Amino acid sequence: MTTADWQDRYYDIDQVLNTPGPRTDPAFLAGDGVKDFLRNQAKILVIGAGGLGCEILANLALTGFKDIHVIDMDTIDISNLNRQFLFRQKDVGQPKATVAAEFIMKRVPGVKVTPYFGKIQDKDDDYYLQFNLVICGLDSVEARRWMSATLVNLVDPENPESLKPLIDGGTEGFKGQARVILPTITSCYECSLDMLNKPTAFPICTIANTPRLPEHCIEWASVLEWPRVQGDKKMDTDDPEHIGWLYTVAAARAKEFNIEGVTWSLTQGVVKNIIPAIASTNAIIAASCCNEAFKIATSSAAYLNNYFMLIGTEGVYSYTFEHEKRDDCPVCGGESLELSISSAFTVEQLIELLVEKQDVQIKKPSLSTPTSQIYLQAPPQLEQATRPNLSKKVQELVPEGGEVTVTSTSLPFSLSLRISYK
Amino acid sequence: MSASEAIDITAAQAQPDSKTRRYDRQLRLWAASGQSALENSRLLVISGSATSTSVLKNLVLPGVGHFTVLDPATVSQRDAGNNFFLEGESSIGKSRAQEAVRLLAELNDGVEGKADTSSLEHILDTNPGYLASYTLVIAHNLDPKLLERLSTLLWTDDTLPMLVVVNSAGFLGEFFIQFHEHTIIESHSETAPSLRIDKAFPALYEYAASLDFTSMDPTDHSHVPYVVILVRALADWKAAHGGNVPQTTAEKKLFKEGVQAMKIKFDEENFDEAEAQAYRCWTETRVPSDIAALFQDPQLSTLGPTSPPFFHLLDALWKFTLEPPHTLPLSSTLPDMKANTTSYIHLQKLYKTRAEEEKAIFKAFLTVPIDDALIDSFVKNAHGLKVLRGKKWGALDADPASLAAAAAASPKATATHLALSALAAVGSPKPSAEALTAAAQALLPPGVELPDEFSDAVGEIARAPSADLPNTAAFLGGLVAQEVIKMITKQYVPIDSYCVVDLVETWTGMV
């Protein structure tokens, strides 16, 4: 592959690879060794070929990574084209990973990009073990939690190669963040779950009985009216006909209640939970992620320790800090989470609490003690067998100070709770 | 579009066109008004470097009207290696401007791109009027003498384009926007406007006073909006306390207990909301201090028919606030709160009606005709107005005392700025750290030492004095594009000094 390296191809980058800077680790071996590792040996995985992913792939290719893999399960939509700059109108409907990989290989000679059009959960530990580094450019919290937990689980203390640095980026409008996670060493994604904004949830009684906002009318259309009228037909929020139906129903309800402001755009925004996104913010965050990848792969400069937060709405404000590891993190902490609940709490209420609690947020949790099953979401037989426990008090099933193990099929880890009663 | 109009058209007609769908994720940030400003803008970018094309990419994608890349250079081997908007080896030897424009224009059919292979020096010598047709000029790592000529020329008249100066070397970079004056109505301020509970307008007061809490239906009772509860509770309190609001901690506690005592059932959340918001009763609604400061703006003392509409609006706002109740015009935006539909919509209507009345009062203070949509926007966003006054590029480096003050206030960012200024001043392709340090020292007043952090910054500059690193280019490209969007749309708040970037430790700072 080095045949594609015409003379002075890396003239700019070589300036920082030929010489250390004042803050470079003394272990940095300037010169050919580091260039050979970067250009001929390093293997890097990019999760997501969307807004951040397109930028990440381009930056990695230009900085000299030549063996890049990319995973994305999405296809290209017209609303991607205002920022996902490897895609054109003609690509709409095609898999993002494939189109992005082809574009990079055509534009940056000698770089091999291997796409996978599918889910990260399709891949096993051996797959992830082949990479030196992983960069995530995702918009899904669930996928990030899965990736972070998977890389933490991969760490084998006997084998230093099993520790895969994870660089994670995220954006929303003019704001974004980039962070470096060294699994088991620094705080992981799960450690910072409580930093996420709480998703706006409207109480079902407001939606059904006392709507005040246009959003309430839209939720009524999508949560209550769709299943009532359309039966088992699955709602596809990418289908304009479905959005059109929701919009019409929501607008009619809004009129009935004298509520203003139901529009097509708002309907789509509410049902798809759309986050505003622009090329410039993605560029900043992706550049930051790739710069960390470059520094980690080459040791040419110290890397971010460990969190960079940017707010671009008022001037350029950023904050770089060390996010601390949580001892009771279910993924990397090792200690159980202390949970104090009322002695009147039922199992069902405990499950609700686990779904909503900021630092837990486990959808559809299954609960067990070291000796018995409290409630299992699947398989159906076990769900049925344990269902009667839902209405029982937790205290009847778990002693004071007792351990409860919480698992969920969506997450590759279990959370250990130590229960006490108020 | 109002709800009643929306209902009369079919869903198919409401479905956005393909352009709106393409721009959906950004229209949610700057709306059609911002988009239209972008589409009417014309950008001139000096050089087709990796950083320049990175900036442009982020402005072509959202749809600026026109861009020109001004660059007489041909693509070198190193350009072909570090610039995504060149096609590797096959671009070598071709015009850098033409290659970059060809590949950038592919990103958006709605944008006009032009390559100009003349030199800036030639334009400055023979046809400086060339620059006047642009909205904004961006220059990356421009020769210091040409930059001085360019910035001086563009500073002569405030109708000439703004200038964005971007400089970078290796992991370090900075940029600066040269502009005379920048006024912002839609700052997208995150502070909510006052609900004026402490100065309830007559219709709100009468409504709150008319409610009979004791004989009310229990369901209605638990759905009275907290705003109404507080207006009533405050009126009752004032009647019993000689017209005074709760003042001491004890009184405030008593007031909150009074609100809780109005409950007829323990789980009435609207009264809990009222208690939590009770501070609004004794926090007097006044003109926010940053808005009051705008009334001292020199533009107001010289206001005339040719003054920009913004200052006519600001003048009217000032006059409005001189009358009771000495507040900004009421905002019609009501946050969500525990309430049933009828009581919420009724309250919303009260606020809307009063906001319209106050807007009419405001309009009467205007002395020139101004478009209604602009008046609406101004009144709606009155609590977030901004006026920024910029400086000429280079003014800071020409002022040793200010530099010394900056070095004391923010040593890390100033050290990096000084190192980049020194690189420009030394003008050698491979300057030594010693030469750079001497050049930086010369910018400071005699006897003032360089910040301790300077050695870190200067070492990086000496290490990679001419490196346009792809990641640094992309990072600066994103930051600069964000600021350019804010300048062009006149939405959100742009920077008004140097923004400095260090990608070794990954931080940004302001000088």
Automatic annotation (TrEMBL), chain A:
Entry annotated with the keyword ATP-binding: yes
Broad EC category: ligase
Domain of life: Eukaryota
GO biological process: protein neddylation
A Pfam family recorded for this sequence: ThiF
Any one GO MF annotation of this record: ATP binding
Signal peptide location: none
The keyword Nucleotide-binding is annotated on this UniProt entry: yes
EC number assigned by the record: 6.2.1.64
Keywords associated with the record: ATP-binding, Ligase, Nucleotide-binding, Ubl conjugation pathway
GO cellular component terms given for this protein: cytoplasm; nucleus
Pathway(s): Protein modification; protein neddylation
Active site: C205 (glycyl thioester intermediate)
Listed Gene3D superfamilies: NAD(P)-binding Rossmann-like Domain, Ubiquitin activating enzymes (Uba3). Chain: B, domain 2, Ubiquitin-like 2 activating enzyme e1b. Chain: B, domain 3
Every E2 binding domain range: 339-422
Reaction catalysed by this enzyme: ATP + [NEDD8 protein] + [E1 NEDD8-activating enzyme]-L-cysteine = AMP + diphosphate + [E1 NEDD8-activating enzyme]-S-[NEDD8 protein]-yl-L-cysteine
Biological function: Catalytic subunit of the dimeric E1 enzyme, which activates NEDD8.
UniProt similarity note: Belongs to the ubiquitin-activating E1 family. UBA3 subfamily.
Protein name (record): NEDD8-activating enzyme E1 catalytic subunit
Automatic annotation (TrEMBL), chain B:
Gene3D superfamilies assigned to the protein according to its UniProt record, in alphabetical order: NAD(P)-binding Rossmann-like Domain
UniProt superkingdom: Eukaryota
Residues of the THIF-type NAD/FAD binding fold domain: 23-491
GO molecular function terms listed in the Swiss-Prot or TrEMBL record: NEDD8 activating enzyme activity
Alphabetical GO biological process terms: protein neddylation
Record pathway: Protein modification; protein neddylation
Pfam families associated with the record: ThiF
Entry keyword set: Ubl conjugation pathway
Keyword Glycoprotein attached: no
Assigned GO CC terms: cytoplasm
Entry function: Regulatory subunit of the dimeric UBA3-ULA1 E1 enzyme.
Family designation: Belongs to the ubiquitin-activating E1 family. ULA1 subfamily.
Name recorded for this polypeptide: NEDD8-activating enzyme E1 regulatory subunit
